[in-house]
Amino acid sequence: MSLPTHHFGRAPKIKKAIRTPISLSPEEFDEANQFAMAEHRSRSSFMRSMYLRGLEDFKRKPKK
Question: Which of 3, 58, 61, 63 is most exposed, with the fewest beta carbons within 10 Å of its own?
Fold first, then answer.
């Protein structure tokens, strides 16, 4: 699945997004912040991109 991109490679905004909290360790939270800042995007945008990448990988794996 490829997503349409905007500047900085961001996924398009979602008109009716549902806020979903995620639990991270302090180290994971700091790392997500660092990656988001390095890519000039919000932490939320970065986390969504990571979710979509992981989901794409999960769907490619054979079902047991």
Answer: 63
